[in-house]
Every structure is written in C-alpha cells, then in structure tokens.
Amino acid sequence: MHPPSIVNLRKKSLLRGALLVLGSLILAFVWAGYPEAHANPRLILPVIVAFLGTADTMRCLRLKWSFYHAGVMLLIYMDIMALAMILFLLLYPYDGWLM
C-alpha cells in the first residue's frame, strides 16, 4: 500500500499546497485576534507555512501552457493574496500607520 500523494512530500500535490496556505491564513486570523489585531510574533509560523505551500503549488506548474497551467497560476495568485494578508496581520500592530 502506498500513502496518498497528499502525504508523500516527494510527489506534487495541488491540494497539499492549497491546504497549507488556507490553513495558515485561518490560523493567522485566529492568532492575530482579528478584527482587533494584536501584536503576536507567533504569526511568523503561518508566514513560513504559507511560503512552503506556495512553493509546493509552484512545483505543479508545467512548461507548456494548458488549462491546467492556468488553474495552477490562479492558485498561485490566491497564495500570494493570502501571504499578503498574513504579512499585513503580522506587521500592522507594530506600526502606527492606518490608525
């Protein structure tokens, strides 16, 4: 019996990358105390996990363009938006801008 591809790190998996990024976004919202963002240095962990999830999604890109390639590109854009939100939750409480 072989483990599913989502568990096997040697195989490419879009689902694993998307789950890592979305899971880290939800964790960042919980740890930041949204909507009243609190300074929390633990938010570095979701940033790292989201970067790893984005890298895992980027592994699934193909050289030749196809609709699969376009779908992977959309997932990468979603990952970048999630990373931007996590970084905003990490950095916002440490500065007085936007207050």
Characterise the protein shown here:
- With 99 residues, this protein is mainly α.
- The chain has one domain (14-94).
- It has helices at 14-32, 44-58, 67-91.
- Helix 1 packs parallel to helix 3 and helix 2 (44-58) runs antiparallel to helix 3 (67-91).
- The chain is elongated, with a radius of gyration of 16 Å.
- It starts with 13 loop residues before the first helix and ends in an 8-residue tail after the last helix.
- The model has no long low-confidence stretch (mean pLDDT 90).
Taken in chain order, the helices and strands follow as HHH
Please indicate the count of domains: 1
- Provide the helix percentage: 55-70%
SSE class: mainly alpha
Evaluate the radius of gyration.
16 Å
**Helical segment tally?**
3
User: How far apart are the first and last residues' alpha carbons, in Å?
Assistant: 56 Å
- The tally of strands reads 0
Shape: elongated
- What is the beta-strand fraction? under 5%
Instruction: Report the major sheet.
Output: none
Low-confidence stretches: none
Write down the overall mean pLDDT.
Answer: 90
Keywords: Membrane, Transmembrane, Transmembrane helix
Keywords:
99 residues; mainly alpha; 0% strand; transmembrane; transmembrane helix; membrane
Any chance you could write out the topology, listing elements then pairs?
Layout (H helix, E strand, L loop, with lengths): L13 H19 L11 H15 L8 H25 L8
Helix pairs in contact: 1-2, 1-3, 2-3
Keywords: Membrane, Transmembrane, Transmembrane helix
